[in-house]
């Protein structure tokens, strides 16, 4: 006789009837659906319906009265503007996510090595608190061509003027009929040679009153010296009219601080600087003829910086603005991943004799690779949809050179009012974004499992 270890059978089973079902744990499914219904309706109205309607609208003509099938897609890939936008998007994808990710990694590592890490994080992350529209306006001003308004060119011109100062009279040029000829380097020289004991007068025009230094005196006639070459450089212009061309009049002013050179065999053997009244004296000359030259440095034009908003630099300039905005986002995510790295691995590498660079390259970066990939793919998704920075920063004259797919979609839909072609561009842009989104979602699921 065997013992029954399962206990007595239920009464229904003993009576020969069916066993009762076990009760379901938790609320019924319809109750969960009831609570999810508002969110599902919101997603349906604001996400699913626009996508489906865009696909539907892309199959119709511009007014939406005639079904054209895939003609809008065929027309989209025959337009030069679409290929320019697609080319710029490729540049954005190839450059912007990688640059921002690397910058975020560098900033995240720096925050662990500096004392004022909190202040540094606030400064780097602060642009994320500014709207893209405001960021575009800021960088539109930063990239102004005029160094007095544009910060970028102000910095460049300051450095340039320190290395190679602007000439004293960049707009000056000889009066017509004066035997002065331009040199290959940009200065001027007398056509006829001079010798010790000679005097010369060099009239110039095209000098603004703002370029004249304070304390400038009336031009004086040169005084001959048998041991040197004397001369006067002056502004041959009389205010209010009158005066004689090529001659020093009583009201005409000299040009001070001009560099004058005596040249022989291609080399400057004597130099002088004009005084407040425009006079100069070249001394220490031996007998024979010399070429009198006004150095090119007197007339060098001021350096006005780079044309940031021109067709050549417009896309790199906008990418730099994008870096300024998104570097803080990348830094915060990477810093979170960096704080989760086991310090034992880093210390073990240092104990084994690895340098800090080797620890960073062979230990830190590999352990951070999942976070770096998440940041990179996220930035790539945003780059594919970039619109506002390009729209605000790029002037109308070069907007075609900076065009991207999202901006092209907007311009076609609301500029030329072709809703069919604009919807086709929207669907094409969606197809480009979806693979990156699917890749990102799969990564998240693998990490959670």
How are the elements arranged and paired?
Layout: H1 11-14, H2 29-57, H3 71-76, H4 80-111, H5 117-125, H6 132-142, H7 151-163, E1 173-174, E2 180-182, E3 188-190, E4 199-205, E5 229-235, E6 259-264, E7 267-273, E8 279-282, E9 291-294, H8 314-339, H9 343-351, H10 356-384, H11 388-393, H12 405-415, H13 419-448
Parallel strand pairs: 4-5
Antiparallel strand pairs: 1-4, 2-3, 3-9, 5-8, 6-7, 6-9
Helix pairs in contact: 2-13, 4-8, 4-10, 5-8, 8-10, 9-10, 10-13, 12-13
Q: Would you write up a description of this structure?
A:
Strand 6 and strand 7 form a beta hairpin. The protein is α+β, with helices and mostly antiparallel strands. 48% of the residues lie in helices and 10% in strands. The protein has helices at 11-14, 29-57, 71-76, 80-111, 117-125, 132-142, 151-163, 314-339, 343-351, 356-384, 388-393, 405-415, 419-448, and strands at 173-174, 180-182, 188-190, 199-205, 229-235, 259-264, 267-273, 279-282, 291-294. Among the domains are: 79-153 and 308-416, MetI-like fold (Orthogonal Bundle), CATH 1.10.3720.10; 173-298, no CATH class. The chain has 13 helices and nine strands. The protein has a five-stranded antiparallel β-sheet with strand order 2-3-9-6-7, with no helix packed on it. A four-stranded mixed β-sheet has the order 1-4-5-8, with no helix packed on it. The longest helix has 32 residues, at 80-111. Helix 8 (314-339) packs across helix 10, helix 10 (356-384) packs antiparallel against helix 13 (419-448) and helix 12 packs antiparallel against helix 13. It is elongated, with a radius of gyration of 38 Å. Belongs to the binding-protein-dependent transport system permease family. It is found in: Cell membrane. Residues 86-442 form the ABC transmembrane type-1 domain.
């Amino acid at each position: 006789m065997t013992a029954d270890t399962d206990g007595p059978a239920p009464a229904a089973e003993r009576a020969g009837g069916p066993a009762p079902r076990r009760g379901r744990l938790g609320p019924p499914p319809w109750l969960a659906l009831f609570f999810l219904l508002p969110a599902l309706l919101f997603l349906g109205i604001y996400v699913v319906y626009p996508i489906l309607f865009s696909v539907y609208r892309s199959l119709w003509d511009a007014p939406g009265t005639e079904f054209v099938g895939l003609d809008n897609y065929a027309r989209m890939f025959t337009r030069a503007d679409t290929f320019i936008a697609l080319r710029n998007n490729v540049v954005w994808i190839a450059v912007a996510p990688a640059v921002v990710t690397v910058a975020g990694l560098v900033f995240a590592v720096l925050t662990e090595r500096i004392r004022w890490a909190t202040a540094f994080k606030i400064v780097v992350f602060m642009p994320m608190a500014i709207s893209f529209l405001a960021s575009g306006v800021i960088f539109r001003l930063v990239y102004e061509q005029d160094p007095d308004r544009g910060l970028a060119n102000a910095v460049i011109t300051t450095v340039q003027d320190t290395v190679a100062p602007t000439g004293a009279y960049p707009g000056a040029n000889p009066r017509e009929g004066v035997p002065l000829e331009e040199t290959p380097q940009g200065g001027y020289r007398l056509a006829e040679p001079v010798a010790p004991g000679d005097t010369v007068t060099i009239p110039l025009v095209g000098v603004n009153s703002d370029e004249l230094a304070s304390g400038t005196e009336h031009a004086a006639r040169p005084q001959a010296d048998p041991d040197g070459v004397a001369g006067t450089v002056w502004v041959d212009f009389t205010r209010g009219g009158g005066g004689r061309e090529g001659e020093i009049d009583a009201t005409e002013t000299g040009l001070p601080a001009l560099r004058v050179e005596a040249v022989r065999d291609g080399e400057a053997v004597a130099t002088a600087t004009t005084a407040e009244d425009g006079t100069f004296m070249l001394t220490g000359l031996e007998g024979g003829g010399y070429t009198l030259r006004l150095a090119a440095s007197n007339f060098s034009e001021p350096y006005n910086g780079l044309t940031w908003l021109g067709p050549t630099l417009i896309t790199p300039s906008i990418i730099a603005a994008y870096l300024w905005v998104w570097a803080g986002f990348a830094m915060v995510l990477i810093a979170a991943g960096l704080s989760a790295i086991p310090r034992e691995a880093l210390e073990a590498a240092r104990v084994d004799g690895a340098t800090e660079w080797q620890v960073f390259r062979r230990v830190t970066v590999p352990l951070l690779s999942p976070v770096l990939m998440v940041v990179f793919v996220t930035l790539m998704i945003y780059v594919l949809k970039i619109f506002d920075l390009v729209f605000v920063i790029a002037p109308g004259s070069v907007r075609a050179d900076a065009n991207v797919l999202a901006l092209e979609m907007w311009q076609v839909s609301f500029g030329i009012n072709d809703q069919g072609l604009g919807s086709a561009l929207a669907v094409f842009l969606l197809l480009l974004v979806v693979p990156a989104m699917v890749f990102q979602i799969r990564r998240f699921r693998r990490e959670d499992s």
